[in-house]
Structures are given as structure tokens and as C-alpha cells.
Amino acid sequence: MPYYSVSRKAEADGEHLVHARGCAHYPNELNAQGLGWHVYCSTAVKAAAEFFLQVNGCEVCCWPCHKEHGHS
Ligand SMILES: [Zn+2]
Questions:
Q1: Residue 71: is its pLDDT beyond 80?
Q2: Cα(3) to centroid(ligand 1), Å
Q3: Fewer CB within a 10 Å sphere, N or C end of the chain?
């Protein structure tokens, strides 16, 4: 079960991305809001939504929870 964090720093599109520890894009210590241990990224993203309005799963480590935008 991975430990998840959400980046305190928003991406250019305003989203805060959720990462599992070990991801190449995992935020550094100062920038990481810890979310705890989760079996699935879906509950980690829900936990992140308690901290930030716009959240999304990292497309690398949380691809089942990554939402694409804009093109539909
Ligand atoms: Zn990631």
C-alpha cells in the first residue's frame, strides 16, 4: 500500500496533483501535503480534495485516477 501526498503547489491549470511515494514527480518535503496510506489512488484523491478544491491524480503513478480535460 503506497503512501500518498498531494502537491501544495498547483500546476499551470490550477490542479494539485496526487502522487504515490516513489513517483519521479513526487513533491519535495516542503511541497508535499501528506495524505496517508491508501490501497487505491481513488481514496487518496478524495483525501486531497479536503485540502484543495482542484485535485487530480498524477498520470504516471495514479493513472487510473488521472482525469483528462478539455478535449471531449
Ligand atoms: Zn506521480
A1: no
A2: 11
A3: C
pTM of the entire predicted model: 0.93
pLDDT at 69: 79
Report the pLDDT averaged over residues 44-68: 97
- The answer to whether 4 and 35 have CB atoms below 8 angstroms apart is yes
Distance CA 71, CA 52 (A): 24
Q: How far is the CA of 12 from the centre of ligand 1 (A)?
A: 16
The three-class DSSP label of residue 22 is coil
Asked if 22 and 62 touch (Cβ cutoff 8 Å), the reply is no
Q: Which amino acid is at 70?
A: G
What are the DSSP E strand ranges found in the chain?
3-7, 16-20, 32-37, 55-57
Q: 37 alpha carbon to ligand 1 midpoint, in Å?
A: 15
Give me 9's grid cell. 503547489
